[in-house]
Design brief:
The chain has 579 residues and is mostly helical. It has 2 domains: 74 residues; 378 residues, no CATH class. It contains 28 helices and 2 strands. Helix 3 packs across helix 25, helix 9 packs across helix 11 and helix 14 crosses helix 21. The relative contact order is 0.13.
Length: 579
């Protein structure tokens, strides 16, 4: 960066023109435009009627099976599998959006494989994966045969023999594991040829236009933004490419980390061209992505996991945040209060999302935000690899391990990856607790805005009024909350299975989350391109930010684990048993 600059928040009173001229509001309108288009396309022209019929037929089978057996039978599970295959993203609109938001694919030794795969390559990959699938399929078929035999024996006794029932349940559980392994192996036989280069060019043009329009409404030059955006987009694409490399994926180095790293290398070696700087709209990109993130935070999912998850996310998090901030001020004597609170929120709440909201609320410098995000990305990559390995090594229960990771690993994607490594229960618990924690983005921003205006700035001799809290509050958080409430209401109205098929597997995974991922990638590339090590170095003086993060995260790890154990295993063991 050429100079230190504060997160842009108007010191004056809000005006009506702010609704179409200010970044926060424009992020909301752009986010909701994407949501609206996705909702109309999926619910007006999607497969909802067909899904309703299939879900109804599966429900009848499951009801009949539940009434005759004291456990979930093979027929019950097959009906559930049929419902699980219903994904609105498979519709014409879903395929269209999925095609035009493609990211570079996976590769091992040749980076070009991330962009182009020939028919010969696809065929060779399928032939290589086929024997493993056939072997897994044979194991699954044998497990199904054994499960059928045991279930029939239990049925022959009228499902009144406890020993036979238990044996049938165990055999069915074995089949389900083998069935999942077979399904995973089958996916690896479905490699198709592709050429993502035209798609990426089209996506670049589309993003340049929609964000360029926002930039123009903010009173800046449209042409200058579009010209610089090309470089930001190219860095994002390269970040996705490097994140898709086999070793990189194994060690959790995703597009976010690579975007920051690549951008910083360019900025601090060749130097980011001046014509590219107008396109480094870090806040605009990520705020729009955060509005879309609201579609993935459903309050009924929060309630489903019960009080234990809420305690882990909503009690531990504010304690860690406040204690880390006090530690930074009283013990480390952090020279910058804004850097202190941004790191504390980033580490304790949910990483980058909370850092952006908190930085806006306390008017942190962009250099401070960059430093906080950099620390978060590094430790997230480490924790998503180390924590599952430690949990498995010591034999920690899946639910406890999932709760521990969900409450401590910063990024939502990293939480899901780490949870999946342990198992389905760990994935569910970890992802749900992270979702609950994400709700605190808005609460944290509001509380920080209040504290900074009523306490910090008054102590510094600046007299500010109550209206300053509203002026300082990051408005895009309202978009996040509205999206969350809207999608919660729609999901509740649709019902569990239809909500999963149409909303989660349609509007979200086939729409909003595809754009959210790209917007986050653009923001991280922009962060790197606009970061100068010389300007960043003074904020790292004495290593205090690193010490703050390590100490705060250590406290977070201990307190989260203790709270998760107490709530899931001592206070509410009945809830844990149902997971």
């Amino acid at each position: 960066m050429a100079q230190e600059s504060n997160i842009v928040i108007d010191h004056g009173r809000s005006k009506w023109s702010d609704l179409w001229k200010k970044e926060d509001y424009l992020a909301i309108w752009l986010g909701f435009a994407i949501i609206l288009v996705s909702m109309i396309a999926y619910f007006n022209f999607g497969p909802q009627a067909d899904f309703a019929q299939k879900i109804g037929a599966a429900d009848q089978i499951q009801a009949a099976e539940s009434s005759k057996a004291p456990f979930k039978t093979i027929a019950w599970h097959k009906a559930q599998d049929d419902k699980g295959k219903l994904k609105a993203s498979g519709s014409a609109f879903g395929k269209f959006v999925g095609h035009w938001t493609k990211k570079p694919g996976s590769w091992k030794t040749n980076p070009l494989d991330a962009f182009v795969r020939s028919e010969g390559q696809a065929k060779a990959m399928n032939e290589k994966a086929l024997p493993k699938y056939e072997k897994a399929k044979a194991v699954s078929d044998a497990a199904l045969s054994a499960a059928l035999t045991s279930e029939q024996a239990a049925a022959g006794a009228g499902f009144k023999d406890t020993a036979l029932n238990d044996e049938a349940k165990a055999k069915i559980a074995d089949w389900r594991k083998a069935h999942k392994a077979s399904g995973d192996a089958k996916k690896k036989t479905g490699n198709n040829p592709y050429n993502y280069i035209p798609t990426l060019i089209g996506l670049c043009i589309f993003f340049a236009l929609i964000f360029g329009l926002g930039v123009k409404l903010m009173g800046e030059n449209f042409t200058s933004f579009v010209k610089g955006f090309v470089l930001v987009f190219i860095v994002s694409v390269l970040a996705y490419m490097l994140g898709g490399q086999a070793v990189s994926k194994q060690y959790g180095m995703g597009a976010e980390a690579w975007g920051v790293l690549l951008g910083m290398i360019i900025a601090n070696t060749l130097g980011t061209p001046k014509w590219a700087l107008p396109a480094c709209k870090v806040e605009f990109f990520i705020k729009t992505g955060l509005v879309l993130l609201g579609a993935e935070v459903l309050f009924n999912k929060i309630i489903a996991i019960g009080v234990p998850g809420i305690f882990v996310a909503w009690v531990v998090t504010p304690i860690v945040l406040v204690c880390t901030y006090i530690f930074g001020q009283k013990v480390l004597k952090m020279p910058s209060k804004t850097l202190n609170i941004v790191i504390s929120a980033d580490m304790s709440v949910c990483g980058t999302s909370a850092a952006i909201a908190t930085a806006a609320a306390c008017r942190a410098k962009k250099e401070e935000l960059t430093l906080s995000i950099g620390l978060s990305l590094v430790f997230t990559a480490i924790m998503m690899i180390v924590m599952p390995a430690v949990i498995k090594a010591i034999g920690m229960p899946e639910v406890l391990g999932g709760a521990w990771m969900g409450g401590t690993i910063d990024a939502t994607g990293a939480v899901a990856a780490a949870g999946a490594f342990l198992g389905e229960k760990a994935l569910y618990v970890a992802a749900t607790i992270k979702m609950i924690q994400n709700v605190l983005i808005g609460v944290t921003a509001f509380c920080v805005a209040m504290y900074w205006t009523m306490k910090v700035e008054r102590e510094a001799g600046r007299n500010v009024g109550a209206m300053e809290i509203w002026n300082r509050f990051p408005k895009f958080v309202l978009g996040f909350l509205v999206a969350s409430i809207l999608f919660t209401l729609i999901d509740s109205n649709l019902g569990k299975d239809m909500g999963t098929a149409m909303l989660n597997q349609g509007v979200v995974k086939g729409g909003t989350s595809l754009f959210r991922d790209w917007f986050f990638a653009l923001s991280f590339a922009a962060i790197g391109l606009s970061t100068n090590f010389r300007e960043l170095a003074k904020y790292f003086k004495g290593g205090k930010p690193l010490i703050l993060y390590v100490c705060g995260q250590s406290f977070n790890l201990v307190l989260t684990l203790a709270m998760a154990y107490v709530m899931f295993y001592l206070v509410f063991p009945e809830i844990t048993a149902k997971i």
